Structure formats: structure tokens, C-alpha cells
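Researcher: Quick sanity check before group meeting.
Model: Go ahead. Protein one:
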Amino acid sequence: MPNNSGPIDPAAGPKWALAGRIVTMDPKSTVVMDGAVWVADAAIAAITKRGDPAPDGFDGVTPLETGGTVFPGLIELHNHIAYNALPLWQVPKLYTNRDQWGNTPAYQQLVTGPMKTIGEATELLPALVRYVECKALVGGVTTTQGIALFSAPGLRRYYRGIVRNIEETGDKLLPEAGSRIADVDASNPQAFLAEIEKKTCFLLHLSEGTDAAAHAHFQALRLPGNKWAIAPSLAGIHCVALAPADFKVMAGSSASMVWSPFSNLLLYGQTANVAAAVSAGAPSKPFKIGLGSDWSPSGSKSLFGELKVARVYSQNNGNVFGDEQIVRLATSAGAEILSWDKVVGSLEVGKRADLVVVAGQNDASPLAPLFEGDERAVQLVAINGTPRYGTPAMLVADGPGLEKFTVGGDPRVLYLTQETEDPDVAALGYGAAQARLADALENIKAIRLEQESRHGPETLASAPLVHAGHPRLALDEFEYTAFTQRPHLPLDGTLTGPIDRPQAAAPPISSLLAPVQLDPLTVADHTAWFDTVGHEQNLPSYLVPGLRTLYAS
């Protein structure tokens, strides 16, 4: 039976509807102040104004009154999502490039050691996948980067989950993006260019930092004859060291960038010159910018929080972006960078029903509710027409595949059933995953000692432990997997770009480890979050007060 005026039952049928304020993010910036979105068979069937007749085929379907604002689902273009179980790192000093902080003792204890341990523990991976994916869902994220496994150098696959994975979509209408390039191609200019031209989107780290070494990473893309190893598919992640002229080069090649302001500010005290990036485009061909929260050790918990950082940064730096432009970074612009804009990124008839409902309506500024309040403001998240997360008022709380839990003390419901999901993840609910992962991180040293007793004392500089039939996390950030997340093209005979893995000898990983607290799912569940962020020494003075205001609104 179709859903009527009560909470939506995701297993009851393919047709349902929501009433409220509809912020479409279409090319005309259409906002339906009081209307309804009608969903059928994974797609948006109609968008109507209140009082209009129901679309054909929706007899008996009454739109659920949300009292809130409906937005397109959030599209995240940069997130090392496997790391989002780890807490925020207290950055000890100001860094000027990526190479400087990856081998510090505190980072190794908090990030490198725990992730290498979890990466080897196959039995923990389903819990990790389930937890970090739910962390994205409760932040309104419907698309993000995936979690890769590898069983030998060069052999890898991605976990199949609930949230859309940009690298492995399984959908011919959603071309898969690249995010890692073979080591052999990363250091050869012509091979690099040929490789990135094979896809419609290739997301690669670029110029991470503020110093000459970070800038050299971009300069190395120059080819003989004043040409560049840049294609329209290239989406440069971070781009902190790029100068205005560099953004002109990027725009001239129809490339794009992905902005992660919180992580940049936390590590380097500054972020990409987004004002110069915007200016590099033309009115008829804007320079495309997407948004990503990076990872929880030095970034926001989800894109819901990163939107707030972007807004506070913009308001304190010449109002680079208005609210609509910021929301587009995480919706329509993200879809354009992926070449998915015919399918997702806005609420339009015929597009996939990826949407998020947030509490409240603002007549003067219809987009403002997306920036206001903590994660409890997220009332419903649907992906491909299936409601996946919401309040009991939006989503039925009892039935097959449904799980009740709380966010900031408020009741919420998850619907995690999906036929195409990895079986080992599908068998695990959120609550069980959270408990298993919290226990593992608390006992991370004992787990590592047991691994070392079986396989020998691996160090941070060792090749990862890989055995037949024993795939593990592909931790390209600090292990050799035959792939890298950034180009390493030569400049004046020297390869550029951060080293992807520790090179020096190191003690056994177990000697570095201490108990780690599982990062809470949301800011609403993390009472110490503002105190923790307030002690981060590299953040500009305006950021934390600005965030407090938005989270409290």
C-alpha cells in the first residue's frame, strides 16, 4: 500500500510524498515556499504547490507534512571516510605542507597506528563501514567517497553500502570518478595526463600546504610548450598553495577544485584562496568548486558541519560566497564536477530522489535552515527514493530492517536494508557496529599485540600485512598499495608531492598505541566538541564563535 499522511514506511511501496518548503537548487534557483515533492520508483515524479492536484498515479498518497525545508541530498567530494571513527587531533603546531605532520608521534599514535591495526582486522571492517556510513547519513550526506579494500598491490575493490560511492556507482548514468592513480603514472607527465583523461572526473590531492614545496606540486603539472598536465576531469583537492594565476590555469583547462576549509585551517592556518578561484571563472563558464569535510582527525564530522565552516569563513573574508553559492558547493556544483548533474544535485522532475529534510523554515532566507542547529535538525534523508534515516515522525520506527537509536538524545530511525550491500555489512546494525568499534579502539593495543604475535612485529614503515583470502583496508595515505592519491610529477628533476608512506625505520606499531575514544557520531552527541575545537591553536579567532552561533541557532 502507498504511504498516506503518517510516517513513511520504506518497505510499503515505491510512492510517497513530502510537503514543506522546497529548495530545488535548479538552474533557476526555484524555491517553492509551500509545496510538495512526489517520489515514485526512485525518482522525483513531480513538484507541486499546495492546492495543486496530486500527480497522476498518486491516488491515495497524501504528502507527509514536514514543517521543514527540503533540499537535495548533500554531495561530498572529499572524505577519507574510513578514518571517521577517530577523534579530532589536537594539532601541536602550524604546518606549511602535508609532509610535515604525517610522521609526528601524536599523529602516529592517534591515526596511523590505529588505522593500520583496524585495517588488518578483517573482523572489524564491517563495523567500521557501518559506523562511518551512518555518520555521513545523519549529516544529510547522500554521496561520498568510498572505502577501498585491497588483497595485493594493484588489486582492490570498494565496499558496497547505503550512501552513494563516487568511485564505484554500479550505475551507467553515474560515471565513476577516479581518486587514486597508479604509482607508475603519477610520476610521468604524459602518462598522468593520459590516465586522468580516461574518466569524466578524477579527484586528486593538489598543493596541500602553504609553502614553496606545496606550490611546486602544482608547478610540476606544466608541460613543455606552455602546456599543462591538466584536463577537464581534474578536480584538485585542497589547492591551498595555488596563486590567482594558478587558478586561471585551472579554469582555462576547465578543471575544478574541492574545498575543505576546516581541515586546511586546522593544519595550515589558512585555506585555498577561494575568492581567486571564483574570479578565475567567467560568467558564462564559472570555475567549479565542490566541498568535502576531509576526515574526522582534522576535519568536520560530516558535510553538515563543513557547510557551517564554509559560511563562517565566507562571512569573515569578504563574503566570498552567499548562502546559495555555499549550498551549491555541496549539491549542484558537486554533481557537475562528477558529471552527474543530469541525474542528481537538484530537485527536478526525473532526477533521482536524493534529498534531505531539515527542521524549520525561514521566509527571509529560505536556505538558512541548512546552516542552523546541530545534527538534530536533520529530519529525513532519502537516497534513490528510499528513506534511510529520519525522525519517528518522518520514518516508521518498527518493522523489518528498521533500527531505533538517538542523536543528541532525540529518537531517530535508520533503514539500512539494501540487496546490493556487502553481506558482512548488511548483517550488522548501527548499535552493534558502534559497540564493537568503541570496544576495539579502547583495546587497540591488545588487538595489535595479537596481530603481531601471529604475523610478526610490523612497523609503520613496513609493507602492509596481506595474506591470501585476507583483504584489508587500502590505506594509501601511509602504505604501499601501488596507488597514490596525488600526482608526483618532477620539477627540476625532483619528484613533487607529499610522500604517501613513512620511509624511515620505526618501532613495532604496538609500542605506539594507547586506548582511543571512538569519535561521537555527531556534534549533538559530543559534549566536549567545542572545548576541543577551541583549543586548536591554528584556527582563526572568528571561527569557533561563529560555529557556536550557528550550532546554537
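Researcher: Fine. The other one?
Model: Protein two, sequence then structure:
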Amino acid sequence: MPRTKKFRRFRLLVILLVLLVVGGTAGGGWYGVHVVRESFPQTTGTLQLPGLKGQVTVVRDDKGIPQIYASSSADLFMAQGYVEAQDRFWQMDVDRHITSGTLASMFGAGKNDANVQSDAFIQTMNWRGVAQKEYDTQLSKATQAYLQAFSAGVNDWLKQHPGGAGASLEYAMLGAAHSGYTPAPWTPVDSISWLKAMAWDLSGNMQQEVDRSLLSQSLSASQIAQLYPAYPSGNGTIVDTGTVSDPGSNDAAYHPAAADSGGASADTTASTTQGTAQTGSTVQGLTSAATQLAANIDSVPSLLGQPGQGIGSNSWVISGKYTTSGKPLLADDPHLTPGLPSVWEQMGLHCTTLSAACPFDVTGFSFPGMPGVVIGHNQSISWGFTNLGADVEDLYLEQVTGPDSYAYDNGTKQFTSRTVTIAVAGGPSQTITVRSTADGMPIISDHDELEQQVGQNAPVTEAAPPRGNGYAIALKWTALTPGKTMDSVFELDQATNFDQFRAAAAHFDVPGQNMVYADSSGASGNIGYTATGQIPIRANGDNGTYPEPGWSSAYAWKGTIPTAALPYVENPAAGYIVAANQPVVNSSYPYLITDDWDYGIRAKQITGLIQSKIADNGKISPDDMSSMQMDDTSVMAKTLVPYLLNVKLSGGSYYTDAQNLLKGWNDDQDSGSAAAAYYNAVWSNLLHLAFDEKFPASVRATTDCVTQPVTADVPVDGLNGPTKLQSVCGLRTPDQAQPDGGDQWMTVVANLLNQPNSSWWSYSYNNGQQVTGRDNLLAEAMKDARQQLTSLMGKNMATWSWGRIHTLTLNEPTIGGADSSSLLSGLEHKLLDRGPYQLDGGSSAVDATGWNASAGYQVDWAPSMRMVVDLSNFDGSEWINIGGASGQPYDAHYNDQTQLWADGDLLTWAYTKSAVQAAGVDTLTLTPAG
């Protein structure tokens, strides 16, 4: 398609902009810098804000992190809204367009209509509509008031930047592409809608449901079970000495401490209500439906990380009896998709005098566009989150009997319908019809023509209704029921003891979280844990691992797990709690939380580090906690490397020299390690050989020549070397259900290593010759790894290092992302992106710099922030963020924490007013107008 004159003029403008911004200190360069700096926040002096009742002080440290002091809650949250808009309004504006399903109205249709597809999918689920109901019917009056005050502060800032004028560099770029865009006023519902994005990205096992359906095309139920193995019994659970209580019940089943605590055993069979047909034949015809649904899932822009793909976290808390200070220590590092600006905003919110009217003295990490603090500490307690991973989504096959009806039990029910118009910047709007079942489940297959083929060929039991033109797919998801999560945020910020903490956590409806706790009261403080979330109760024998027959009421949810029955523990005898996405409870727990737990590799490693430290000297320091966060041991290497070293390689020293890198390797994945690079390349190629060709064609990754970021072999002045995109044959283009190399696949392969003649170890050469046996496949994987790394880093292994290929590039995901059709033809990356950074760590390491083994070695998810809270001295606590406080690309604080984060360093976290003032470098005073 030929470029238009308008596009050529726009590209010329962008080139000029690049030259002005990065072109130096000459006159033009100075002018460009002046234009960009005009959007930077005012951080000193005095500003008037309409609506303030009293004076507010904003103190920023040398990293630009704001601490806000106000005499009333209304003024405190109004100031937070203003300050967040100063730093991050572009990000906030984009995020609300994603969560409301209006991204195309801002950026246009996108490449291959990606924005339209995303908008249609999100509006089908109606995230914003659910958020509106939450605000109208579920939230307390106090929470509503806080949200209103926050919105007023954002809008005060927006009035100073009408139409986005002078707001950020990105608005200038957007205006050149789609003139006429004007940001709308901020509303409380914009803030609440973010919770739906958080719930989506941290949701349960929808992707696994789709993957199992795709794999069922050519694999048997027993083969699929091998790919989703039972949880290793030795990896433990979070609650093994704790309590699960249910008022009104004295049933011993509610007390899993009485049962074996060796670890939960995940049932890998499918739902049994339909018998064996559900595991095999029922899902075999879901090919086109599952493939397209996976594409729709991928169409939703990832704000935190792709659902089910490496989304985890580490958190642990140590009792004061095992710490150097005698008070608890708490560590937390959520693993999310990194980008710029950071997903987190560091913030302090302080009432100048604590009272019932102004009860906040809290600091920590919040989400831009959301008031309050999500993770952190107040004057009494500290808390951290990891993802619970509860299965809170089910896909239902619906037999459509007419334009407005579907089969249910022995009759039919009526769909409800609504019409949605999707506005498209620079193009015509599009209209879709959204249908929902009688109980409110949206039909997520209506907005795309291919998805209308859902279940078209799916074999079902004899009791199933006629297929007709195929089954539709409906979504049941707890996040589509209005909840009280926003109440929970403010309640956590005010809690002062474990009972108040649990009461606040009980309102954290979605997404379900593991929450760890510490306080400083008593001789050695207290530690605790609680699970949160609305988690469905399914029919007996139904574990939610495959799509359900929607025509039968037998598969309907039976309510949710009672809040009082959710697992918790306070001051366990062990003296520590580790929550790293492993199973919460053992098999005695009376409710199903999920059958798709993380496999506990990180949790077991963290537990071992804690136990080793306690056994060594009995005391753990804050520095020990941060050192544990940076542990980059490959646990899988401890299992696999002995097998690799036992294989006899042919082909001479070219291959054996690489194999010998593993001799004496300590299993640490340091960025400078050649052995770590080679091991991970072997791991990637092992997965390719063992699994790819056995998967159905519709989910098989293609082996092709693709680009892999590689940094120069010689760093300059201590910084990462320049990057290049190396074309390498042998890397794979990923698709759904492909082995990503994470904990699931480590568990699969660990099980298979004891079965040297398993059919999984067979593979075919390009000439069609079939090779069988574990050692033959391992030998081929080592040879392929040698060749691949030679292509990436050269023949001389002395120049190899894990960090050269295991890099993180921080991308600004909107202007230059696929969803915006790369508005600036790639030039935006020079302006907005940062990196690459050479990183330690790897998938399922405690330092979880995750990479997808089907796509290359670059980092896809990582610890998005790290914090260590010292309950003996809050001013001695430490934190770090990816990126920085600012969302302005050329602000000094846009990316001033990333290198520190990559090096494993933490920043001092001032809390008390005297410490904040001592650390402050800028002070802004906000006063009432008039």
C-alpha cells in the first residue's frame, strides 16, 4: 500500500523531532530539549489547586519519589491524583482506554485491526460496566469519597494541560498521527477499571484450558497428563501448620494442619462429569475455536503480563526470633512484564496528624491512576502480595438454538443483547452485538467470524444437544461480578494488626492473592499469611481444566468459597512463611482452589536458603533478604547437568569443549557465565526436539530464521555494549501451548529423565530419519546449542556470556507497539525505549528474569520491583523499581533506577518525617485556590 503525502510529512516531522531531542546542545537541540522539558512536573515552589481545603506538602527525594503530607484524607488523595498525573498521565490515559475497550479511538485500528479486536473483546466482557456497578453499588462511602478526591486532583492537572498540550512527548507524537484527540476528564470508574486489567493479567487457567484443548487434537489424555504433571510432593505448601476456619462448622476437614503436609497433589485428569469423553473426544473438535480464542486472549494488551505465562512473585516473611534486629523482616518482588513507564509508582501518603478523619500514614507501591498504596507498610504493619493463581475462570460451550436462544437442561433460555460501537481514530467506527447468557456470561465468540465456528466438530456425549452450526463459547469469571477490592486497598492502608489485616484482605475479591504480613508489636513482632479472593465452588468431580458443557446445569458454579474458609496462618512454628505461587494447602482442604499451581521450584529454593541461613548462624539480616532475592541458581540444572555430562558426544572438540563448560559449573546463572548461556541453549533445544514435532500443527512453533537481541561482547565504561538484532536459524516462532521452559516444563522433563526410552525422547532429523532414546536426544540438543550460540556470539567460547543473549529492553508499549501500528515507523523506539540490560537469573530462579524457550533468550518477565521491609526500623527498609518515578521520557527520573535494579541494588526507603525531610531535594507546596 503506497505511503500517502500526509504520512511522508508526518515521518519527516518525526525525524526532525528525533534530531531536536537527541541532537545535542546546539540551538535546535536546545529548543527540542526545552519543548520536552516543558512537560516535566513542577516539583518546587507553590501551586494553587481548586478544591483543596488546606495546605499540602510534596517532598521528593533524589529519585523523584514523592511523599505527600496533608491534614485531611480528601486533600491527601486529591494531591495524590495531581502528583500521579504530573508524573504519569499519559500512561494513565492509555491504560483507561485499554480497560474501557476504546484503544482504537486513541490510536486507530492498529496493525491488522489489533486495537479493534482488543476493544471488541474487552467491551464484550464489559470491564468498565462492571467497574461502574462496583462504584455505584459495592464500595463504601469513604472509598467513593477518596476516589472522587483523587479524580479531582487529576482533573486539576488536566485543566492546566487542556487537550494534552504540553503534557508529554507522547501526546505530541500522537497528535501528529491522529490530530484532534483530547483527553477526557478523569473519573472514579477509570481508577476502578484498572482492577479488571490486574485481574485479567493475574487470572487463573484460561490459557491452560485453551492449551489442553489444542493439544487434544493429536495427544491422548494420558500424554496431556504427562505435560501437566502432579505437584511434586517435596516442594511443600504455604499453609502446613495453619488454620482454615468456617464459622458454624466444627468439621475437622477445615483444619488441614491435621493432614499430611508433604505437598498438594494436583489432579491432572479432566472434569469427570462427562466421563472420559471430556478428556479426549469432547475437546478434540475445539481446534478452530481454541486457536482463535487464544488469539483473542493475546489481543488484549498486557498491562502486567500475559495470563498464565510466567506471572508469579516471591514473598516471604521472617519472625523476629530469626532476625538480627529481633523484629520481623518482609520481602516482596512481584514478577510482571517490564516496560516503560514502570507499572508501579512509589509513593508516600501521610496525614500530618493521625485521626479517625485522616487515618493514613502509609508508603509503598501503587498503580498509576489508582489512589492509595497497594503494597508497602504503614506505621504499624507491612504486607506483600504474590499471585494466588486460583482458577476463577471457566469456558462454557453453549449450543445455540436460534438467534436469541441457547439450550439449557431440557429446554432453552434467551440471550440478552446489547450493541457496542467501537470508535476508530482516522477511520470509520465499527459496531458489534454482544450476547450474554441468562446468568450474565458474555459470549466471547461473537465478535469474531472465526470464533463463530466454536465446537463445530467437537465430539460430545450422547446426552449433548445437536451441534447445529457449532457451539459458542461463554466466559464465567469472578471479576465480572462487582466486588469490593477498592475498599480493601484503603482498609489495608489503615490496618494496624493481624485481625484488621485479614478483615481488609477479605474484601480483596479479585484477583486472588497470597498476602504476607508482619508487625512489630510484642517481643519479636508477628508474622502471618492469608489467601484472598472470590473462588468458585464447582460441581463434585469438576476441576475446571477443560471447557464445560454449558447446556447442563450440573456444570454451573455452586457459589464461592466462604471468606472465613480461606487459608491463613499466624506466627507458624517454623518462624517464617514463604509464598511464591506454590500450592497454599494440601489435599485435605475441602475446596478446589486450582489444579494448575506453580510447581514450587522458587518456593523450595527460598525455603532452603532461609533454612540454611538459620542453621548457619540463626539470624537473618536485611542484607540477607536482598541477597536471597538475587539468587540466580538454576534448580533444574542440578538435575539435568549430570545427565548431559554423562552423554558421549561425537563430532570432536567443537562440541565437547562446549559440553565441558558444564564441568564444575555452580548452576548460577550470572550474566557473565558462558556455562549458563550454554546450559540454557541446551535446555531450549531439548524442549524443541522432545515436544515441538509431537504437538498439533495448529500449535506447533515454526523453526525459522528469526532475530535475537545480542549485546556486544565487550561492555563500554561499565555499561552494556551496543545491541544488534542477530538473525539466527534455529530459534523458533512461538505459538500457543508451546513449551516456554518454565517450572511446568522443568517438572515434565525431570520426570522423563528417569524414563530413558519414553516416546517423548524420539525426534526426527530433517531427512526424516527417526532417532529414539534420551541420551541421543540430549546429545543432539547439546550439538544444536553449540551451533546456535556460535551463530549468536561467535565460535570463540571465551566471548560467550549469558548476559549477551539474556537481555532486557524496556519498551514503551503504546506509541511503538504493534497495537498502534508503530505510528512512527520504529523511530519512536529511539525516543522512548531504554536498554538493553544484561541480566542474571532465569525462568523459575528466585531472580526470575523469565524468558520463553520457544522464542529466544530475551527477558519477557522479571521482578517488577523489590522491597525489603525492616519492622525494627522502617527508615532502614529498602526498595527499588524498574524504570523510575517519572513517565516523561527525558526526565531524569524516567529510568534512573533500572541499572541499580539490574545490579541487585536497593534504595534507602525513608519513612519518618524527619528521614523524608533529610532525604528530600525538592519540596512543592499545594495551596487552596483563592
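Researcher: One line on it for the slide.
Model: The two ends are 57 Å apart (CA to CA).
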